[in-house]
């Protein structure tokens, strides 16, 4: 404990790190919950993660942040603050004023929007990450940064893709995520930063919308199926990609953050649940909605990206080291998503 206090009270920035500097994660007892900051929290994943972490650590111990204006429901459900990850001083002020101990770094531009705006993606995904790493190291934070199936490329083994193999992605998103994995691991080995990283598959959620990725079709199909009974898919029918229901993704994040450090033989893990093609997802949906019509209008950018990504993800290390286990396969995913949208439609009719 005295060591922790001493390290935290040193006022330096890793921007002026001395060659023998060493950082240590802040330890806390079971009764002393972590104080969590989530960046980029208004995207597809952040609000759900905040809800899960607040149930576990208390509402006021989890702060959501973003550069966008939160909807009323989010603003009133717990602490929310403005935070631009490109503003280092602002980040530092938030961490200091709120005595943050865990940082979940969700801000990013995803694969398709990244290709549409490479300069912004480079700035948010790479310069922003540098700010986050320095803040986390300077203040002894436990840092979670998600990576992605997009961190692999056409020369990686695709079926299955192991944790350790060639990573030569061809998107700015993928390049920035490989950079994040390597920088986080470097800070861990060099400075003792408690860096934890999961490579997420495409995430599927009902109550939040994806932010411009290649796997977005697998969410949009549910919205369109319920609304119009028709869906135009922008990937070819046989494009196989790893996918996961959001509840599994958020639970994995919580579990790896809580895992004792000595169970982590690596700092970056693949996690997986299922793999399917648009055709297989359609067939599963049609078991309950036989009238659903799916047509294909291929987006060459997204298709090119998908064709370079893993088809199946090998997550055996996560299962072995810290007990990762998914709950949702394709049938449960489809049932859960349809239940959500049907209930929403029923409530809309009642009101
Ligand atoms: N959703 C998925 O399928 C998926 C899969 C693999 C990995 N991931 C990773 O998980 C994380 C969260 O994903 P998501 O789907 O919620 O992303 P998203 O695109 O839905 O949300 C990203 C958020 O980052 C915010 N942001 C952009 N610029 C910012 C800045 N300068 N400062 C602060 N915030 C900024 C945006 O406003 C947005 O709310 C990302 O890092 C993503 O790469 C997501
Ligand atoms: C896979 C993931 O990183 C994101 N959903 C994307 O497609 O870009």
From TrEMBL:
Keyword Signal: yes
Transmembrane segments: none
Listed GO MF terms: L-threonine 3-dehydrogenase activity
EC annotation from Swiss-Prot or TrEMBL: 1.1.1.103
A single BP term in Gene Ontology: L-threonine catabolic process
Keyword annotations from UniProtKB, A to Z: Signal
Pathway assigned in UniProt: Amino-acid degradation; L-threonine degradation via oxydo-reductase pathway; glycine from L-threonine: step 1/2
Domain of life (superkingdom): Eukaryota
Enzyme class, first EC level, given as a word: oxidoreductase
Catalytic reaction(s) noted: L-threonine + NAD(+) = (2S)-2-amino-3-oxobutanoate + NADH + H(+)
InterPro entries tied to this protein: Epimerase_deHydtase, NAD(P)-bd_dom_sf, NAD(P)_epim/dehydratase
Protein task: Catalyzes the NAD(+)-dependent oxidation of L-threonine to 2-amino-3-ketobutyrate, mediating L-threonine catabolism.
Family membership noted in the UniProt record: Belongs to the NAD(P)-dependent epimerase/dehydratase family.
Name of the protein in question: L-threonine 3-dehydrogenase, mitochondrial
